[in-house]
Amino acid sequence: AVCSLVAATLVAGPAAPAQASNPIVNRFAADASMHVYNNRVYVYTTDDESNSGTYWDSNAWRVYSSADLVNWTDHGAPFSVGGFGWATRYAWAPSATQRNGYYYLYLPTDRTRIGVARSTSPTGGFSDPRGTPLIEKGRDANTGEEPIDPAVFVDDNGQAYLYFGGARAPKVVRLNPDMISTTGAIQNVTISGGSGFAEAGFMHKRNGVYYYSYSTGWPGQIAYATASSPLGPFTYRGVILEGVNVNTNHHSMAEYNGQWYIAYHRNARAGGGNYKRSIALEYLSYNADGTIRRVTQTSA
Ligand code: FUB
Fold first, then answer.
1. Residues tagged active-site
2. Closest Cα to residue 34, out of 45, 24, 42?
3. What are the tens digits of pLDDT across the range 58-102?
4. Could you identify the atom of ligand 1 that is nearest to the CA of residue 46?
C-alpha cells in the first residue's frame, strides 16, 4: 500500500495521509505496466476480468490512471486483439511509452507475436500503424520459443530498446526512432549468477545503472541484475519481490514525484486465482550502494 502523495505532501495537521489499499482497483487485472505521463500515473494491464477463468484468454487490455495513487480512474480497454488484423487471441502483458507526440503500446498476442499500437491519447484511440507484427516467431530470427512480455525502454540518448521473452529466453532488440520498427538483430540478454530468467523482463535506469528485473519461474520471484550498458552483460544482484500467491509474477517500476514504486499482481480479491489476478502497488527503495531493498507485500 502507498500513501496518497497529495495527502502526504499537502495536508497539514494531525490527519493521517490517505492510504491506498491493495489491490488498487476492484477489477481482475494483471501484468501492470506503470508509466508517468504529464504528472499522472497510468497502469496498463492484462484484463483478467474478461478471461474464462481457466486460462489467460482475454482479448483486451485495460488502462487505469491516478494523480494520487489512491483514487484510480478506469479508462476501459485502450485496445483489443481484434485491433490487430493479424492476431487471433491472448491479450497478454502490455508495455507502453510516450514519444514523438504519440503514446505507444507494445502488445503480445497468440504467444508468438508482439504488435505495436499508437495514439495521441494515453487511454484510447490506438490503432495499428504497421499492419504486421513488430516481432513474430517464425518470421524473425532469434525470437525464442515465446516472444511475449514486451518492456520498452528509452535511454537518455534517445535510443529505444524492446526487451521481451518468455520460456526462459530473455531477448532485446533496438527500436528505430519511429518506435514502430526494429533495427539490428534480436539479441540474447545474458545474466551471470543467481536464479535464471523465466519471463516478465523489465528495464529501468537509475544513476547511470541499468537494472534488468524479471520473474524466475512459475511461481517465481522478481529478481534483478545490473549492467553498465542496456545490452548487458548483466550481473545478478538479488531478489526484489518474493513469490506471490499465484503462479505468475510480473512487475514494473516507475518514479513519480521523486519516489520509486513497483506494481505487480497477486490473488487479492474474492474469486481470485491464477487467472483472476489483482494489481498491487508498493514503495520501491534503494540502498546507498544502489542495490534494491526487498519489497514487502502489503494489503491495507
Ligand atoms: O498474463 C499472461 C501471462 O502471465 C504474462 O504474459 C506473463 O508474464 C504472466 O504474468
1. 31, 199
2. 42
3. 999 999 999 999 999 999 999 999 999 999 999 999 999 999 999
4. 1
Helix (H) or strand (E) run with residue 6 in it:
helix 5-10
- Residue 136's nearest CA partner among 147, 125, 123 is 147
Task: List, chain by chain if needed, residues with CB within 6 Å of any ligand 1 atom.
Answer: 30-31, 46, 56, 92-93, 148-149, 199-200, 248, 250
Task: Report how many helices (DSSP H) and strands (DSSP E) the chain contains, helices first.
Answer: 1, 20
Per-residue pLDDT tens for 174-231? 999 999 999 999 999 999 999 799 999 999 999 999 999 999 999 999 999 999 999 9
Cell numbers linked to 56: 489467460
Q: Specify the pairing of strand 234-241 against strand 191-192.
A: parallel
Nearest protein Cα to ligand 1, atom 3: 92
User: Cα(157) to centroid of ligand 1, in Å?
Assistant: 30
